[in-house]
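Quick start: read one record
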Amino acid sequence: MKINIFKYFLIFLGFLISLIFYLSIVGIETDKFNQQIKDTVVQSNKNLDVSLKKVKLILDPFKLKINAKTIGANIYYANRPLELEYIKTQISLDSILKNKLVSSNFEVATKSILLKDFVKFIRAKSNKPELLILETFIKKGHVILDLNLNLDQNGKIKNDYKIKGLLKDGKFKFFNGIDFNNINFLFYIEKDKYLFEDIKFTSDQIDFSSKLLKVNKKNNNHYAEGKIQNSEAVLSDNLINILNLNNFNLKNTKFSSENIFNFEITNKFKLTNLKIDSDINFKKVIYDNNLIPNYFSNQNSEILLDNHKLKLIYENKALIANGAGEFKLDNKTNKIEYTFKRDRNDIEFETNLNIKKGTLKNQKIIQEYFPLIKDQINIEDHKINLKYKNKDFTLKGEGKVKLNKDFDYFKYFYNKNDKDFEFISDINLKSVDLKNQEFLKQFFPSTKKFLNLQNHKLNIKYKNGSLTLSGNGNIKIDKNYDEINYFVLNDKEKTNFDLKLILNQTDFEIKNLNYKKNINEKTNLSVAGILKSSKNLNFESISILDKRNKIKINNLILDKDYLIDRFDKIDFDYIDTENKDNQFIIQRQKQNDYKLNGLFLNANSIVTNLLKSKKEKENKIFKNNFNLKINLNEVYIDEIYFVKNLQGLIFIKDNEVEDANLSANFENSKNIFFSIETKNNGEKITKLYSSKAKPLVKRYKFIKGFDEGNLDFISTKKNEKSVSNLKIYDFKLKEVPALTKLLTLASLQGIADILTGEGIRFDEFEINFNNQKNLMTIDELYAIGPAISILMSGYVEEEKLISLKGTLVPATTINKTISKIPLLGKILVGDKTGEGVFGVSFKIKGPPKDLETSVNPIKTLTPRFITRTLEKIKRN
């Protein structure tokens, strides 16, 4: 019996082992527990439901538990289905024996579900607005999920759940036009932890990838960190618009990047604490700006940027960028480095440029003053630094610029803030040609069309509306170089200037002063003053100094038309071109009252201008009317003759002498008087008396042998017409070519010989004439002397035509004629008369340099000639 019992035991044991093997390997299928599973799901959430097929049970003999698994189930939430691959759980043997399914752990795997359907399913559980937006963005994609869930005693899911899954072939399209295509990644989710791996997606034909993305939840906020990169790709138009890079032509731009980031998403889906660390490589970036061709000659509006490596760091709303690369300007490759920082509203950047070679376009303002500079200006080896911070922009640079044959060195600084800007430049000019100014020619008669500046060191500063220009170097005004030093300060109201010029062998003259620089001596020319905004020009000091000469002017003020408004003092101490000393001072006494005091003055040129009596527009040099009181010890009126103790008063009105009263003495007590009187009706009367006529007459070139005599002149001028009378007494003529020719033609060779020898004496000369514009009309010219007498009239049109006619009679003919007058002839000339002597009528006509003279003998004298002769005889 024991044997039978043991036998049955072995059979039972074998059956039990076989059953265990069968249940452990093959298992069984049943739908007995389907209702219990559905009840458990409903217990966790009343809106949930599940559709199950048969449950397959497999024994786990070691844990004494049953692994339950159902395939092809569906789960519903609010009647929205979700297809499952399987549901798997472990059940205790005790629950099976009690015919009650009790489990605390479930493993759920879904089939490949459309991503949009999955979001709809979740929305059925939690209809949040962001889920609706997400559903709108989703255009394509499938998701597969594996869930590991533990339930508590109440059937609620515990927080130790684990979810892993796969998103495949996703596509998102956002409102701003960005598309994400071919989205694929793995994900792992636990309580407050999200892990994404092997992320890949495409946007605008750019492939992006990331090995790892982590998201952790803390205090209802989500913290994400990860790394994303893209392989080299062409930057798309859509991304260019999004990044606001429309000034850049990026159609063929290739770039690659690696980006490390982390950020926080609040429970209200607000992105905060964003940090990005990016390394970006750019190739073939084209910057387009229409202003570029205005300054660069061989450059269109596009600049090529290539091989740029850019480092971007974004943290706490601050962006920092550091980059370096190449840019192509004027077909030359150059280097550039740059940094950029943006902290909220504050922007800061710095750029370093290295320009090897370039060609600038010449600008109009440069061409105006430097016309010989070519249209294309070459630059080389320029190092430029650009900075911007808190609305403050700074540019610093240095390099070589070719303005002429050689390269010159330029150094420059520019700064601009919100309101003001500053500019500083140091320039070393080897040689450059500056356009000469017309007004300089009257002081530098040998000057050329261009002034050459050599070895100039020039400093330019501009700040807050104030411009300073200073420099020194050499300047070639005519044939040789001179030293020059200059300073100009311009602000809003005025311009200060200071010029110092050391003239070596340069011609320099002041014609109005009859001053000319000694070519063998150095002359220091200094000019300092102020140009005011009212256009008044104030020369605070002008000085011309050398070993023998000194001219100083203090506080000379010119108005906007460059007319002299006033001056304080002018000190002259120089030797003029006639080798005459000039030592005198003109000083302002009151508003428009001046005093001229001095030892010596050469007035030769002044007298010449007065005798010419021309009114020219260019002679207008004074703005105001003024009085001039004169007291001079010695005044030369020509190269030889001088007067002493010149005293008197002159009143200048509208740049003309309105009134004058001057007197002086020759040697041996002879004197000279000069006066001008202007009446209320505008009539101007000029009087001149000189007990020496020679200094005044000899300056006329056609009279070379005038000697002795005294002169009396009076002229009345009104409405631009003058009527004048000139008388000269007791003088002698010698070497008068026109008169010599006339006597020769009249066969009066004896008298002609006297004229070219010791000279012909005249007792009296008188001329009545009038002037109007360029025409002088001679009403009558009469001269009588012991040898001959002349009566003449005619006109002279200045520099065009001379037309004169008259009568010339030897003294013997006059005596013979007068002797025939009853009683009076006997008293005047006696009974004797000469024989064989006759008179002539003559005409002189033609251009001044080609006069033709004709004579005809006469048998009788005109009554006018006789009358004039008798008047003279009676007076004598």
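The longest helix spans residues 2-25.
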